[in-house]
Amino acid sequence: MTIQATTHRDELLSRLDASDDPKAAGLARRLLSSAEIEPLSKKPSLIKASAALSIWETRQDVTAITKAKILGAPSLIKRLRSLDPDSTLEQFAFLGPKSAGNVFFERQGGSLVGVVFVDRDEGARQPASK
Fold first, then answer.
1. H/E element holding 51?
2. How far is CA 33 from CA 47, 78, 101, 104, 130, in A?
3. Can you name the residues that pair with 114 across neighbouring β-strands?
4. What predicted TM-score, i.e. pTM, was given to this entire model?
5. Considering only CA atoms, which of 39, 29, 35 is closest in space to residue 6?
6. Which letter does DSSP use for residue 44 in this model?
7. Considering only Cβ atoms within 10 Å of each terminal Cβ, which end of the chain, N or C, has fewer?
8. What's the whole-number mean pLDDT along residues 22-50?
9. How far apart are CA 18 and CA 103, in angstroms?
């Protein structure tokens, strides 16, 4: 079953109810419930699981240098490793003055894959001190 998705918050929040990962679903709810964030697009970006894995493994490696904290990245990476590399994901991106994040769902079936979330107030973009 293919899910036709838009970035209506209520629709995305309802998709979290079927998640078998309460921690990721809670983090996604935190992101989606923020009144300050806005979707970057009306429709999700589509990305292969293998491409998402490569991107987020690299970003996670960079955080060792920058000391930025990306909530949800380790569990997203773990989940991406378990997926068929050719499976297609829906990526919903959100940005606000104090936070930014992405929520990932499987294109087929619509299940939650994971979420990444950055509190920009907490120095997430500050370089590491030497």
1. helix 49-66
2. 24, 25, 12, 16, 36
3. 104
4. 0.84
5. 39
6. P
7. C
8. 91
9. 15
- Residue 124 above 50 pLDDT? no
Q: Which two tokens stand for residue 25?
A: 């679903």
CA 85 to chain centre: 17
Amino acid at 87: S
How far apart (Å, rounded) are the C-alpha atoms in residues 121 and 130? 21
Residue 67 φ then ψ, to 5°: 65, 15
What residue has token string 């293919």? 2
**Cα 126 from chain centre:** 21
User: CA torsion, points 25, 89, 71, 10, in degrees to nearest 10?
Assistant: -40
Cα separation, 89 vs 104, in Å, equals 6
State how far the Cα of 15 lies from the Cα of 40, in Å rounded to an integer: 19
Q: Which residue has the tokens 């500050």?
A: 126
Q: CA 87 to CA 106: how far, in whole Å?
A: 8
Rounded to whole angstroms, the Cα distance separating 91 from 107 reads 9
Write out the two tokens for 108. 């087929």
CA distance 44 to 90: 5
